[in-house]
What does this fold into?
Amino acid sequence: MANAELGDDVYGEDPTVNRLEERAAQMLGTEAAMLVISGTMGNRIGLLVNVPRGHAVLADSLSHAFLYEAGGAAMVGGIHIAPIATNGGVISAAEVDAALTPDDPHFAPLTAVCIENTHNRHGGAVWTGDELHALRDSARANRLRVHLDGARLFNAAVATGMSARDIVACADSVTFCLSKGLACPVGSVFCGSEADIHEARRWRKMLGGGMRQAGIIAAAGLVALDTMIDRLAEDHANARTLAGALAEMPGVTCDADRVDTNMVYARVADAERFATTCASHGVLCASTDPTTVRFVTHYGIDAGDIQAAIDVCVEVLRAVGSSSRASQEVAHG
It folds into this structure.
């Protein structure tokens, strides 16, 4: 990063950014690519490019685009996100057909589908090749565009054995994060057709994402694409080890068989208290609802760290359980 060759990316003159964008497009089989500051910006631009103002996009009700992007699709693009509950985050062809809107002024016309792979709130779940092909065929038959939130796209590729290019073939546009599993400090890449990227650059500028000497970011992205993909399998193995141990702990419900990639979701009696207590012992996890915690494995976490985290969870569960019993005894006199 310190030695990156730099220029002004707003004018397309940063050679390191240009190399990253060319590399990303080549890897994913798209015509072009564009560096953005975050996955949320990439998703925002993906919807803005694919969905006209006043139209609708179909998305899973637990998707990042629906839950965690501050209502930006509606605020910035006048786009209605139509949420549906799915099985494991996978939108089926039948669900697409059922969501189609009639030519009626009461309804926002459905123009696109936004899918997420891997799917965060569904435990890092991945789509199979058959599921992706079915979604693509349904979308094309109904003249719908597809945006892929591929924040953890390469986790999906490693877990399924599919190439990132084959996964992305179902979509008109895709965003993937250089951060998260690929371990860069910042940045994502939006990929699509030449026409979409041309439009996307205007949206990026409007959203405040035009950067100058952005090669310092792109340099890390190039290292990530060259050296950080295959090692994602280590994160997946560590996640399975953690999930297996959590599943055996009293007071925890964890379906280790559903751990496809680097996320582990577990249910406990008091998720916020559990997460706070774990943090005080040096293990970070997040409460996603009152009874659910999420662990994410990543670069820099090895098998020894996983065992240390398991030991902390055992101690925390023991301490929280003892505290709860003591509180109950006081309450009941």
